Amino acid sequence: MFDKYIYINYNRNMQSYKFRLQPNKEQREKLDNMFGCSRFTWNYFLDLNNKIYLEAKEKDLKKKHLNYYDCANKLTGLKKENEWLKEANSQALQQTLKDLDTAYNRFFQKKSGFPKFKSKKNNQSFRVPQFFELKGNHSCFPKFKKGIKTIIHREVLGNVKYATISKTKTDKYFVSITTDFEEKKKRISNNSAGLDLGIKDLVVVSDGQKYSLKINEGNIKFLHKQISKKKKGSKNRKKAILKLAKRYEKFGNVKQDFQHKLSDKLCKENKLIAIEDLNIKGMLKNHCLAKSISNQSWYWLIKKIEYKSKRYGGEVVKTKRFYPSSKTCNHCGYINQDLELKDREWECPKCKTILDRDINASKNILAQVLRELNLKGEGSTRLKPAELSSIDEAVKQEAFGSLVQR
Ligand SMILES: [Zn+2]
Q: Cα(15) to centroid of ligand 1, in Å?
């Protein structure tokens, strides 16, 4: 019964569109009020839930948080105490409660950290789960029946499932529309690829290609310094903060663009994409800030690869268990226990092959996934040896050879 709303799959067979909104002054005030109501509701119930959680932990109680239904019942009472909440789109507030419930469930399932309070200083948003409509170049939804002017730069295909209204730190308003449109694209080849996700290069592919996005962070450090020099609450400080927010926004856009182009290319070129399970990878590498940032980039890149691969009729398969992908020679299977993180290149003591650390790892990831598929007996239906043309001969032998020997 919870599945219906808790685990909305944002990507499967869905298409998203993001458009700039141009609300007039009155609409801006109303939207800001709506963000405020959503934030207030989130924070109010988060606070309440935090107390329940602590008490449950202390007394070892089973019920550790108020679920959506508990909160929705309390919301009615809260509205009586706070008349201004009644001006908000009530479905959007209920959606906020559902999102909070999801956040708690994700925390309990150890999929993410403890839910956080929302601040006015960050990006603002609320979701319109129902009755969103595009009429001409206007976004119409409850409490905004006349519609907010919207810059529609591409055609919206499919039926609208829901929409999210947001506001950036730089005071820009956007609407993200999700529809049920299923786009089928044509794949150009039947290759298979293994991906190694790294710090130095974001992605290294088993065909030897390396991809990374270099962003000049010097400017950001400079802006941070500027802000720290200015007096708190001063106009100049606010100006500097806005400048920094704009810079981050631009970086964010560049990153998004890079991830879209890269995921598109990989999915267009490969029928099967093999990757390591990020949970395993994350466990190994989450004790350093720079690494946790890459971690986030990996997460969003893989999300894109996963849904695009489906669109192209391909699939993404994750390795099931830990595998020493960097330390294993992809030619002979020798495991080099002496390999250190600083060794970018190494010579296999057994077969004397010179190996690039990351390319070797990506080849091993592909081989490992193929091995797992074969053990499950799915290799033959999913992939034929002829489709392995992109991998070198030795990996092919390792992948299929191991089965033959058994
Ligand atoms: Zn070797």
A: 45
Q: Quote the ligand 1 centre to 362 CA distance (angstroms).
A: 15
Question: Residue 186: inside a domain, yes or no?
Answer: no
How many angstroms separate the first and last alpha carbons of the chain? 46
**Number of structural domains in the chain:** 2
Query: How far away, in angstroms, is 370 Cα from ligand 1 center?
Result: 19
Residues with CB under 5 A from ligand 1 (ion): 329, 331-332, 334, 348, 350-351
- Ordered strands of the 160-167 beta sheet: 124-128, 160-167, 173-179, 15-22, 144-151, 138-141, 133-135
Q: Taking a C-beta distance cutoff of 8 angstroms, is the pair 357, 346 a contact? A: yes
pLDDT digits (tens, 9 = 90+) for 45-80: 999 999 999 998 888 888 888 889 999 999 998 999
**pTM check: above 0.85:** no
| Residue whose entry in the numeric block shows the structure tokens 């270099």 | 214
Residue 295 sits in the same domain as residue 400 = yes
Confidence of residue 254 (pLDDT cuts 50, 70, 90): confident
Residues 243 and 356 in one domain: yes
Evaluated on CA atoms 187, 192, 197, 202, the torsion sign reads negative
Question: Do both 70 and 162 map to the same domain?
Answer: yes
Give the structural domain span for 41. 3-179
CA 132–ligand 1 middle distance (angstroms): 59
Residue 184 lies in a domain: no
